[in-house]
Amino acid sequence: MGQGPQSLRLADVAKEAGVVNATVLHHFGSIEDVHSALMERMIADLVGKILSQDMPSDQPVQRGFAFPHLIEAFQDKGAARLAAWLELSDQSQRMTVVREAVNKVIHEKIRPLSLPQDRVEDIILISIILALGLGLFGTSLEGLLDRPEGTARDMATELLISATEDLTK
């Protein structure tokens, strides 16, 4: 997706998968359904990484425990561009899998820690927004503002660490 999701064609997907165009069309139905499947796969991978991460028993919430995975997914894996494109092309309803993913993380990783669900959801919301922003603009804005590479990531991580520390007080 070097040129963005809008340039992805079913023929490109078929060629990359080593199948004929009709197979991709039969499996997905449309290029929009390919985009949705990509987003679902990225989110499923992200949730899997978060759920597999061990949390120390002496620390209710490990400092910023999921944020590195969010950054990797949204910045390094291109999920931010795909999510932005879905939003800008009025297809954000295709991202309903995000709600399911958040619920899964809360129920399987966070709820056993007896933390306030509303606050946890707020932190997850801002985490996703920060990761999207970093994925879309972090590197470019760091360059434009003559800031060292990684400055935005480090600052966002510190903000989230502060938010998670508030949960344990």
List keywords for this structure.
mainly alpha, 8 helices
Describe the model.
Helix content is 69%, strand content 0%. It has 169 residues and is mainly α. It has one domain. The longest helix is centred in the C-terminal third of the chain and has 28 residues. 23% of the residues are buried.
The SS-based structural class is: mainly alpha
Approximate helicity band? 55-70%
Number of contiguous helices: 8
Please mark out the parts with pLDDT under 50 across 5 or more consecutive residues, or reply none. Answer: none
Brief synopsis:
By secondary structure, the protein is an all-alpha fold. The chain contains eight helices and no strands.
Task: Note the topology.
Elements: H1 10-17, H2 21-28, H3 31-52, H4 67-76, H5 79-88, H6 97-110, H7 117-144, H8 151-167
Helix pairs in contact: 1-2, 3-5, 3-6, 4-7, 5-7, 7-8
